Amino acid sequence: MENTEKIIAKDLLKIGAVFFRPDEPFVWASGIKSPVYCDNRLTLTAPEVRNDVENALAETIKREYPEAEVLMGTSTAGIAHAAITAHILNLPMGYVRSGAKDHGRQNRIEGKLEKGQKVVVVEDLISTGGSVMEVVDALKEEGANVLGIVSIFTYGMKRGAERLAAENVRNVSLTNFDEVAKAAAEEGYVAPSHVKRLIAFRDNPSDESWIKA
């Protein structure tokens, strides 16, 4: 029986949520050139894959964070996943805005959150870890006890891992860049010879030598 990492990797590839273009790199908002594009929002419009993802998130939370009392999604991609997973687990759910509202109660955290509550953050993907750490920090400022993060996909970048480790924040992902790259080669989405280039990008995104490799 295939493990969760491989199942989710194949699911993401099947619906085009993760696809590779090593010869014509994508450009991230940060300016980094990347051979891979990841859009986990597409899982929401693919019921079979959505079921795999949400059930896997629920099982991961039960296994890794059994004391969880509330789920908090990241804005905006993590909100739907947090809501569906919270429904499966019968847990309260809210989300954290990228910034406080400029009207009404000017909330940044939406949903009821009691001080000291044990929270798990639900994120769709992790690259450098900057955006998800902003969410964790916002929750801690409101008195939450953040147990950790669950995410669908992680690039496994050194910078992201170091950022989370520095703040003693744990992340558990359903699948990762290496597993998806391996599955992509096995399923014919990329040439096997490209995998080394993909891993070179993962190891050091600022070094663009992989483009011409």
Commentary on this structure:
A hairpin with a 5-residue loop joins strand 2 and strand 3 (33-34). The termini are far apart. Helices cover 39% and strands 22% of the residues. Helix 6 packs antiparallel against helix 7 (195-203). It is built from seven helices and ten strands. 38% of the residues are buried. By secondary structure, the chain is α/β, with parallel strands linked by helices. It has helices at 4-14, 47-64, 77-89, 130-141, 158-166, 177-187, 195-203; strands at 18-20, 26-27, 33-34, 36-38, 70-74, 93-96, 109-110, 118-126, 145-154, 171-176.
Which SSEs are present, and which pair or pack?
Blueprint: H1 4-14, E1 18-20, E2 26-27, E3 33-34, E4 36-38, H2 47-64, E5 70-74, H3 77-89, E6 93-96, E7 109-110, E8 118-126, H4 130-141, E9 145-154, H5 158-166, E10 171-176, H6 177-187, H7 195-203
Short summary:
This protein has 213 residues and is of the alpha/beta class. Helices cover 39% and strands 22% of the residues.
**End-to-end distance:** 35 Å
Separate helix tally: 7
The neighbouring-strand order within the major sheet is 7-6-5-8-9-10
DSSP E strands, number: 10
Spans of 5+ residues with little confidence (pLDDT < 50)? none
Helix content: 25-40%
Q: Cα-atom Rg, whole angstroms?
A: 17 Å
Mean pLDDT: 92
Order of helices and strands: HEEEEHEHEEEHEHEHH
Shape: globular
Major sheet size, sense and barrel closure: 6 strands, mixed
Strand fraction: 15-25%
Main features:
213 residues; alpha/beta; six-stranded mixed beta sheet; two-stranded antiparallel ribbon; globular
